[in-house]
Every structure is written in structure tokens, then in C-alpha cells.
Amino acid sequence: MDIGEIRKQIPATERSLYFNSGWSGPSPQPVTDAVIHNLEHQNFEGPTLPHVLLEERETKERTRQAIAEFLGATAEEITIRQNTTDGINVVLNGLTFAEDDHIISCNLEHSSGVVPLYYLRDRHGVDVTFVKLEAEDSPQEILDKIEAAMTPKTRLLLVSHISYSFGVRLPLLELNQLAHSHNAYVLVDAAQSAGHIALDMHAMDCDFYAMTGHKWIMGPDGIGALYIRRDLVEMVEPASVAGRAAEHYDFEGDFTPRRDEIKKFELTTTSGPLAAGLTAAINFQTSAGQAQIEERIAALSALARRRFADIPGVRLASPEDGPTSCGLACFSLEGMTPEDVVKQLWERGRIVARQVRESASTRLSVHYFNTENEIQAVASLLSELTSEAR
Ligand SMILES: Cc1ncc(COP(=O)(O)O)c(C=O)c1O
Questions:
Q1: Are residues 250 and 309 in the same domain?
Q2: Residue 164 near ligand 1, beta carbon < 6 Å
Q3: Is 16 inside any structural domain?
Q4: Which domain holds residue 45?
């Protein structure tokens, strides 16, 4: 992997030390070009010309296929969504829950999982348990805590594959197996994992996996996808429906719903430019190789954690190493608020990071396009800040 060449194609890397892909990744030039080209083509030609309509349909099917291959799934298991949250809501509002059914989640979740769960609890009377996990828990401790919360009424487990607040990577295959052995399904919030680590839905025994294109995949905002295991598609009722959710209808009252095709979740007009941009982003990512990307992120972020941990006054909030660690490095600085740290990193070093309330930390998203020198620059600035604050 030639990082110099890759960086040349990501314009944002010339303007800052960009460590915030966990919020939104900087798109490579081919992604921006694909969006613009599609938009211009549609509008210079006329959006409903027969050949433009056909090309648009093909563009969207190519995106579905690209996502399927990227996730180790089939196109029949992929519905294009607006983002992760949209996918989570499709599943939570599409499963049928009885009063007293039980759902397990955990304290590392994003509001995009937590708030829909509370709505579900208040609307349908389901019980929700948030298991308390710690950043230093081992994979076995995570599994044990979740298993201890299981009851005969547990229907669903909702977890992030990678927690956005503490940067903890959960043992997903084992969690899926655990849930299945208790007759429960698993809905995964994949906002922080898609494009960050190598994925294979079938090998990981996944049920539902909701992702976005705009973070670690570095595609445009506003397009993502939901994976539903093929044999579960029929069970999930579409909460919002339009023509694609009908096999047949007339105006005499005859109506046959479409039940067993994932297209039932898709509504009317969607964006060709965003679809073209997401396909370009996936192609850019796969040409570097997702396994290689994961490996480089692991090495770079381990370097970052080592460097930061050596600085007096810096405390890591994310796992130091091992199977639960990932490219999200969260830390706090003695004597400074995370807001101040983020501001100082930007103002003194053009380093882009963010603060996270739940872990009271500053979070760096270390992506494969980052470099050892950039990490060194962050470490030097953190040393400067801690010695000033002490
Ligand atoms: C874990 C997690 N879930 C959900 C979201 C929301 O993502 P989206 O904008 O794709 O809905 C985020 C965004 O930061 C996140 O980190």
C-alpha cells in the first residue's frame, strides 16, 4: 500500500492532520468526481431521458452489489438507507414485540440505538436492559456480562460492533452465537466498524447490520445500508411503505403486500449522485484492501496509544491493546477539559479531533491514510499541553 499515493488522492490530508473519520471521513477525489459526474450527467442530459433512467437504475444496483460484496453478503440482503440510524430504526420498528419481551443493549451505545429503544419501551412495553461494560473488559467478560442479562424473554441484543464513546471493539461472532443459543437476534450498530475493519456477514453469523458510508468508508453524507440475513427479510415489517412494498394493488380493494424481498423497505426517489459516490468510495477502499486497512489502522493506533500513555498527565479511556482495541483512541489530559484539548489541537496544530461526553475524553480516529509523523505531531503537542497545564 503506497500511503503517499493514497494521500495525494485525499485532498483534505494536505490541509490538516485529519483524525476525525469516526465522525465523518474525508472523501478521496474519485468519490467527489463520481458524485459531480453523475449529477452533471443527469441534468445536462435531462433526468428522465430513457438512457439516463436506465443508467440511474444500473448505478443504484451497482451500489447495492458493491455493498453486498464489501460486507460478504448477497444483494438480496442489502437495502440502501440514508445512514446507520435509519437502518437501526427499520429493524427496531419492523420487528413485532409483545409486552414484556426483553431487549439487551449496553452503556456504550450511541443515542441512535438508545433513543429508539426507549421509544420502543414506552410504546410497546418491552423491557430494556443496558448492561454496564467497562473499556478494560476482556472479550470473555463482555460475553459473560451479556449472558448474565439474558432471560427466557430476551428477543434482541442491540450493540455497536465498535463503541464510539470508548473505542471498544466487541467480539461480534461470539455475541451472535451467544444470542442465537438463547433464541435471540442481534442488531448491530456498525457506524464505527464499516470501513474500519474487515467484515463478512455470513462468516460472522450476523442477523442485522446497519452501516453508513460517510465515516470510515469516506463516502458522501446521506447514504448507507442495512444488511438483513436473507431468511429474516420476511419477518421484518416495513414501517414506512410505498409502491415497492406491494406485489399488486388496484382501486377495488385488492392488495398483495410484498413480504419476502428486501426492496419492500425502499421508498420512492433516491439519489443517483450519492449512490455513485458510495460505489466509488467502496472501490477506493477495496483497491487498498480492507484487511490491509484494518492492519494499518491497528498498527498506527497502537503507536498512538503507546506514545500518549508515555506522556505524564495523559490517561487513556479506550482499551490499551488486544482484541477489544481499534482505531479510536480516547484519552483525557489532567487539568484540561476535552473541549479545550480539541480546541488547542486545532488552533496550534491543525489537528482535527473531537470530544466525547460519555467517556469525558478527546477522541482521535486513526485511519489508514494517517501517518506515523502525524501521530508524532499529536504526541508532541499533547506533551506541550500537559506540561503547561501542570
Ligand atoms: C456508534 C454510532 N451510531 C450511530 C451514529 C449515527 O450515525 P449515522 O449518521 O450514520 O446515523 C454514530 C455517529 O457518530 C455512531 O458513532
A1: no
A2: yes
A3: no
A4: 37-286
pLDDT digits (tens, 9 = 90+) for 325-354: 999 999 999 999 999 999 999 999 999 999
Give whole-number Cα distances, 98 to 2, 6, 278, in Å: 54, 51, 38
Q: Is ligand 1 within 6 A of the CB of residue 105?
A: no
Q: What is the model's pTM?
A: 0.97
Most informative mutation of 112, 117, 162, 208 for ligand 1 (most atoms within 8 A of CB):
112
**C-beta 213 within 6 A of ligand 1:** no
- CATH number of the domain residue 275 falls in: 3.40.640.10
Q: Are residues 147 and 248 in the same domain?
A: yes
- The minimum-distance atom of ligand 1 relative to the CA of 85 is 11
Grid coordinates of 128: 430494556
Longest dimension (CA), the chain: 78
Kindly state whether residue 6 falls inside one of the protein's structural domains. Answer: no
Q: Is 189 in the pocket of ligand 1 (CB under 6 A)?
A: yes
Residue 130 and residue 89 share a domain:
yes
Per-residue model confidence as pLDDT tens digits over 228-264: 999 999 999 999 999 999 999 999 999 999 999 999 9
> Which of 252, 286, 320 corresponds to the end of one domain?
286
* 371 and 225 in a common domain: no
Of 217, 201, 336, the C-alpha closest to 286 is 217
- Euclidean distance between CA atoms 90 and 86, whole angstroms: 6
Please give the number of the atom of ligand 1 that sits closest to the Cα of 23: 14
CB 197 within 8 A of CB 162: yes
